[in-house]
Amino acid sequence: MEQERKRVVVTGMGVISSVGNDVETFWRNLRNGVCGIDFIDEFPTEELAVKFAGKVRDFHPEEYGMDKPFIRKQAMFTKYGVAAAWQAMRQSALVSGENIDPFRLGVYVGSGIGGFEVQYRETVKMVEDPTGHWISPLFIPTMISNIAAGNISIRHGAQGPCLDVVTACATSTNSIGEAYRAIRHGYADAIIAGGTEYATIPLGLAAFTNATALSKAENPKYASLPFNANRAGFVMGDGAGVLVLEEYEHARARGAQILAEMVGYGNTCDAHHVTAPRPDGTTQARAISLALEEAGYKPGEDVLYINAHGTGTRLNDAAETRAYKVALGDEAYRAHISSTKSMTGHMFGAAGAAEAIATILALRDGVIPPTINLDCPDPECDLDYTPNVAVQAPVTLGLSDSFGFGGHNACIAFRL
Question: What is the CATH number of the domain that holds 140?
């Protein structure tokens, strides 16, 4: 006899982003169409072809419980992840050993790249001095992509399952999805889940530019153009997004505030190309369909919002539009869809979690955040992508989908 599957709810959320370093600021700016993309002032960009990104600003790690030695030693992606987790755990009011068994509290926080700036800095040292004498003893434990999850586990006494999912741009959507399954099948009572990234260093900008992936627009405020006929590549962004997922009865027993219920997850692979999406959208559609089916989607009854992957690349946006049509049929034309990457830039391993938070808040408030700069819609992208301004809608089901290099497709679903 199959074991009864448990319900999974969201009891905490935290975010660090170019449009806000707390959830309500992040959401207010998304609703208002505020663009966080601007010229980089953190390092010289004169020689770089791309000089802008969705950089995190006014970030003060000590405000999120980090002390000076930790701040000095850790890579930025870890600090972003720790800050987002601190927010989420504070909202959830979970305390290991007090209202949850430490062995039943897990951490699934991934990063697409990890300590990129640490890798670069220490590599330069090795090139300059091949003896390796000046290589930091902290190089490995600050660079590896699992170390954000490890540090979050240490800080919150989470002794249950701890995983670092790495699936490029789908990283945090997969992290949340796999955490959902772990709780649903009884392996944990709560999991701190999401992703974190800091990739907008000169090497990252040069690499993605030479891969012909980035927008080279002159105006950074008109550079991230999802579903626009003028789109010419994505814009890099940094940050972190973290959700606390919790088993429903566990949350209810301790009187937790339930922010949403997670009701579906789909996970597929294109098996097509290392960077380009499958152009017919069929494998992406399968991930979406799996999430919809598990969520109990009712065509014609549910009011659907989809936070799109929506990167602003020629290939992604067209394939994603096809995927929605394959998954939803005629209902695709009635769905509310938007890409918040038009405002945040592409946060890579953190994107899916930040966008899941936006999806939950769209459900909460009945507001669809806009796709800004959508002044020239691509005829191939002919769905309702919520151009330029937010709209009111009585949303009953929210989806967030992510597609990553390597063909990774993930979709997660929420209801209130």
Answer: 3.40.47.10
Q: Could you give the number of structural domains in the chain?
A: 2
Q: What is the DSSP letter of 339?
A: -
Mean pLDDT, residues 237-259: 98
Please tell me whether residues 71 and 179 are part of one structural domain.
Answer: yes
Q: Tell me the residue range of the domain where 311 lies.
A: 262-415
Residue 33 shares a structural domain with residue 166 = yes
Tokens of 80: 């972003």
| pLDDT tens profile 313-341 | 999 999 999 999 999 999 999 999 999 99
Task: Return the structure tokens found at 208.
Answer: 């993605």
Residues 194, 350 contacting (CB under 8 angstroms) = yes
* Active-site residue, from 35, 156, 250, 309: 309
Active site residue 169: yes
3-state secondary structure (DSSP) of residue 117: helix
pLDDT 10s digits, 361-392: 999 999 999 999 999 999 999 999 999 999 99
Q: What is the Cα Rg of the chain in Å?
A: 20
Q: Does residue 100 fall inside a structural domain?
A: yes
145, two tokens: 């992509």
Please tell me the distance from the alpha carbon of residue 172 to that of residue 297, in angstroms, as a whole number: 23
pLDDT for 291-302, tens place per residue?
999 999 999 999
What pLDDT does residue 4 have?
Answer: 80
Does any domain span residue 25?
A: yes
Give the pLDDT of residue 1: 40
| Identified catalytic residue from 346, 381, 408, 411 | 346
Q: Are residues 87 and 41 in the same domain?
A: yes
Tell whether 307 and 225 lie within a shared domain: no
Catalytic residue check, 309? yes
Tell me, yes or no, whether 248 and 341 share the same domain: no
- Pair 169, 214 in one domain: yes
Would 2 be classed as within a structural domain?
no
How far apart are the C-alpha atoms of 397 and 413, rounded to whole Å?
A: 7
Res. 115: pLDDT tops 90: yes
Query: What does the pLDDT read at residue 3?
Result: 64
Q: Which of 35, 156, 162, 169 is catalytic?
A: 169
Instruction: Please report whether residue 3 resides in a domain.
Output: no
Domain boundary among 228, 253, 278: 253
Specify whether the CB–CB gap between 174 and 401 falls below 8 A: no
Task: Name 72's Cβ contacts closer than 8 Å, sequence gap at least 6.
Answer: none
